[in-house]
Amino acid sequence: MASPPLPESCDAVLLSEERIRERVTELGAALTRDYEGQELRLVTVLRGGLIFLADLARATDVPLQLDFMAVSPYAPGRGGVVRVTKDLDDDITDAAVVLVEDVIDTGLTVNYVLSLLRARRPRSLEVCALLDKDVRRIADVPIAHRGFRIPDRFVVGYGLDLKGRYRNLPYVATLREDALEVR
Ligand code: IMP
Ligand code: MG
After folding, report:
1. At what angle do helices 17-34 and 50-59 cross, to 10 degrees?
2. Where in the chain are the domains?
3. Are 26 and 34 in contact (CB under 8 A)?
4. Closest CA to 126 of 41, 32, 23
5. Taking 90 as the threshold, does the pLDDT of residue 81 lie above it?
6. Is it true that domain 10-180 has CATH number 3.40.50.2020?
7. Where does the pLDDT of residue 125 fall: very low under 50, low under 70, confident under 90, or very high at 90 and above?
8. Pocket probe mutation, ligand 1, options 156, 160, 169, 180, max atoms within 8 Å of Cβ
């Protein structure tokens, strides 16, 4: 199936469907190796991580369960404190948890979510992030598995949105600078 044409507000495909598929297969193989003999809990923060999680789970060959949380974006100046708008459904005490993230930008959101999850005493807790905008990092994030390092550009597709749109693009594209008034 041909990829859909680039939306007018985007200027280029940064990561093609094929590159993403290959990398997600490798990440799944890495999780399969790391968690052999264990039961894995893949947790993601809605909604951006959903598409990546769905593909990563199918590339990972250990028994696993999925769970979801949602947070409101942090307010500037609040040190990355976010409000949990939907909590996990299941207890993670003693579970081997991998937090699956679409993109780590400043790192504030994921670090806050990690602190919430750590307080519940999982047996292990690691981060698997598809995209890493490391030049924008404010808070240090321990990323066990990373898909791609990307430059400081706003990207959409493969789960990532601009005001709720473009999540269904099968590739990751950079947004045109003039299509982005707020960040
Ligand atoms: P952080 O707390 O700055 O790391 O924020 C990460 C969150 O910001 C991600 O989970 C996304 O929701 C959003 N975000 C950061 N960069 C992008 C982007 O390039 N496209 C779409 N959403 C982004
Ligand atoms: Mg997100």
Report:
1. 60
2. 10-180
3. no
4. 41
5. no
6. yes
7. very high
8. 160
